[in-house]
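Need the bound structure for S-adenosylmethionine, inputs here:
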Amino acid sequence: MAVIFSHFHTPSITMVLPKVASCFCRSLFSQSTIYNHQLLHYPIQNPIFNFNSNCQRIRTRVTKFSEASSVTDVISSPNLVALEYADLKLPINCEEVGNIRVRQHVNPLSTALSVPAEVPDWNDVFKDSSLPLMVDIGCGSGRFLLWLAKRNIGSNNYLGLEIRKKLVKRSNFWAKELSLSNTHFMFANATTSFQQLASSYPGPLVLVSILCPDPHFKKRHHKRRVLQKPLVDSILDNLTSGGQVFVQSDVHEVAVDMRNQFDSVPDMLHIDVIDPNFGCDPDGWLLNNPMGIRTEREIHAELEGAKVYRRMYQKGT
Ligand SMILES: C[S@@+](CC[C@H](N)C(=O)[O-])C[C@H]1O[C@@H](n2cnc3c(N)ncnc32)[C@H](O)[C@@H]1O
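Answer from helper R.:
Posting the output first, comments after.
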C-alpha cells in the first residue's frame, strides 16, 4: 500500500527521496531505534481512512528491502522522521546523555513540576540575547527547533520548554553538537515558568508555538492541558507587537479549544484576517505547517492519515 505523497510538503523530502531509495532500509532502519523511544503515542482521533487497528495500516512494516515493492512500502513513522530531519545529521548514539528511553507522559500537575524553573543568565545560554526569540512550548525531542535554529543563526534565538528531562538533556547535547549558539532547551513546566522566562528575556518575543500538545482526553484531566487562560494571558503580555502564535493539534477537540482561547483575545488576529492569501481551509485551519518542516507528532499523525488543525495568530500593532 502506498503512502500518499501529498504528505511530503517539505521540499527537502521530495528532493531527498529518489536519492535514498537504494539505501533506504540500511540507513533509516539503523536510525529507527532511537526514534522509537520518543514517538509520542496517543490514538489518532480523526483518520481520513478507516482501517482495522493492526491489520490494515497505511504503512507496511517490512524487514528486508527486497520484500518491499516500492520505497513507499518501507516508510514508517520513525523512518519518516529520520528522513525529514536527515540534514541535521544528529548523532544516533548519545553516550553523554545515557539511555534515552523516556516516559511517554508526565503529569504537569505533579508536585515536582509545580516549582518554576530558574531563569537562566540569558547571556550564558545565547550568544546574542538581544535577538528576537521563538519559544516552543512542549518541544518534545527538540528536532523541530534545532532545524529552525540551524537556518536562522544570527537572526533569531530559540528556546524549547519541555517537562521530560531526558529529552531536554539530549536536545541540549544536540544543540552543542551542531554548534548552535542560538538554541537552548529547558526542563520547565510552561504553566509555572513561561511568565518569568519570557518577561526576563532581554530581546523581543516574536513567536510562541504550541504544537500537538498532550491531549489529556479525559474530562477530569483537561486541567493538565498546557494551554490554560493564564498561559494565554502571559503569552499575550510578553509577545511583541506583530509577534505570532502558532498552534496545532491532530486532535480536533484540542485544536478547537486552543482556537477558542486565542479567538477570544481581541488583540490576537487570525492570520487569515491579516493575509487572506494565507492557505486556509474554509474553517480557517492552515493547510500546511508554515514553518517549513513538520513536528514529529505531526509527521506521525499525517502518516496515519489524520488531519492536523493549525492556526496562526498575530498580535495587533
Ligand atoms: C505530544 S508531545 C508533542 C511534541 C512536539 N511539539 C511535536 O509536535 O512533536 C507534547 C509534549 O509536550 C510536553 N509537555 C506537556 N505539558 C507540558 C508543560 N506544561 N510544559 C512543557 N512541556 C509540556 C510533553 O512532555 C510532550 O513532550
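Comments: Residues 40, 106, 108, 137-140, 161-164, 189-191, 211-214, 226, 295-298 surround S-adenosylmethionine (CB under 6 Å). Confidence is low (pLDDT under 50) at residues 1-40, 46-66.
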